[in-house]
Design brief:
By secondary structure, this protein is an alpha/beta fold. It has one domain: TIM Barrel (Alpha-Beta Barrel). 30% of the residues lie in helices and 18% in strands. The protein contains 6 helices and 8 strands. The chain has helices spanning 3-15, 36-40, 59-73, 83-89, 121-129, 153-163, and strands at residues 23-26, 47-51, 76-80, 92-95, 114-118, 134-137, 168-170, 187-192. It has an 8-stranded parallel beta barrel with strand order 1-2-3-4-5-6-7-8, surrounded by 5 helices. Helix 4 (83-89) links the parallel strand 3 (76-80) and strand 4. It starts with a helix and ends in a 6-residue tail after the last strand.
């Protein structure tokens, strides 16, 4: 785990008391097939996990294992794109670009986190309108998850985040050095894969 990223997340949490976790592990079936060891190392009380693994047939079993681990370690858990699985796990929901999957928006469970990805100003607005607790704006920097994608860069990321009606966390190429290039006032948290891997 990147100690500088962990120190940054703790410092942000100290300023933003009572708000959502500041350090998030994103699961990735290709880059981190079994995220349980990485999740087990997240700091208690300030960490969270976004379960993706969308096409993995073992996703429900992995979700159950992560839900147990997250409860034991006081970590937040949100499930990307599947409100039913999220409800079964007692987890929150992670939207994509501020959009609910399917035609009907399910009722929001009391106390459950709602997060979203965003890639531009329009998806930031959709996420805020959906009532998210916070939104992951990406890619902040070049990332191995999307090697051909254009990164926003520190200046553009910070400008977009500063205009968001919802709190914004950084995702994409995030580590203990890159996160410090972003506007401290606009960055409410960070998500990563490699920087949080064992």
């Amino acid at each position: 785990m990147d100690q500088r990223l962990l120190d940054w997340a703790r410092a942000v949490k100290a300023v933003r008391r009572g708000q959502a976790p500041t350090l998030w592990l994103f699961t990735d079936a290709r880059r981190l097939p079994d995220p349980r060891a990485a999740a087990a190392r997240l700091p208690r009380g300030i960490g969270g996990v976004v379960l993706r693994h969308d096409t993995d047939p073992a996703r429900p079993a992995l979700g159950r294992a992560l839900a147990r681990l997250c409860r034991a370690r006081r970590l937040a858990l949100v499930v990307a794109g599947d409100p039913r699985l999220a409800a079964a796990l007692g987890a929150g929901v992670h939207l994509r670009d501020g959009r609910w999957p399917g035609a009907a928006r399910p009722p929001r469970r009391r106390g459950a986190l709602l997060t979203s990805s965003a890639h531009d100003a329009a998806s930031l607005r959709r996420a805020a309108a959906a009532g998210v607790n916070f939104v992951f704006l990406s890619p902040a920097f070049p990332t191995a998850s999307h090697p051909d994608g254009a990164a926003l860069g520190a200046a553009r990321w910070s400008r977009l985040a500063a205009r968001s009606a919802a709190p914004v966390a950084a995702l994409g190429g995030i580590d203990g050095d890159s996160v410090r290039r972003l506007s401290r006032a606009a960055c409410a948290g960070a998500g990563a894969i490699s920087a949080l891997a064992p």
